[in-house]
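The authors assume throughout that readers already know how a fold can be written as discrete tokens. In essence, backbone conformation is discretised, so a fold becomes a row of integers matching the chain in length. A single example would do more here than another paragraph of explanation. For illustration, here is how one protein appears when written out as sequence plus structure tokens:

…
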Amino acid sequence: MPEYTIVIHVEPKALVALEEQHYFLCMSQAVSGATGEPDYNVVALAAEVTPKNTIKFTTKYSIYGTKQTFKVGQTTGQGDAIIRPIEFGQGYVLKSWSDSKVVTTDKAPPGGFAFLNDIQAAAVVSLQQGPTGPGSKDKPDAPIYISSQFVPGTARLTPITQVCLWFQQNVVTSTMVSVDVSKAHVINLTGRTEASTTYTNDFKWKDPTMVPGSADYESEVIDYTKITAAKATPDAAFEKAAAVN
């Protein structure tokens, strides 16, 4: 599996504002589940913000079953069934909480996995080695996605090489979130393993391919210096932070 590298530059004015209000740089990777649309619902990495932030991750996956239900602000637990490495074209068979295995199956989607459960359960997809970023430590089996609770049957899950970036207070890796992709900075890594972007002094995201003044360059501006950290809850802070396009 390839290693992906994303470099995020933060300009001085923006950096000071983010540091003063104790924001973290957050990343989530997309997974397509029951809706068929890319979904970002678990923080794969929450890291300190520095002038140059390098995030690295490798797309080797694990999966497990859980009784846990999705709830914004909570962290994903250790799971109720054994976590197992899984590759594209394979399925995670969950007979009971103490009986699980990975098999090759034609029920898996192209570039994805099948979740074959005989009991009601949610699926958690993890990176076998968690992403690394500024101030972060290597963390094995970092969750990137939790599904809804599936009734017994077959579900299909497809990781996508797209990530979104945002800044958030009061957050840790593995926190469940609700990302509005129209208000988060999405980077598509399909066909490449490296990307870079800049968070400017105007509190905007700027990619090297963007042309200043064009429609895709303009974004809603959030002035973090006007956000009071003491009054911000994790959900409210995320809603404000994710409003940066």
About this structure: DSSP finds two helices and 16 strands in the chain.
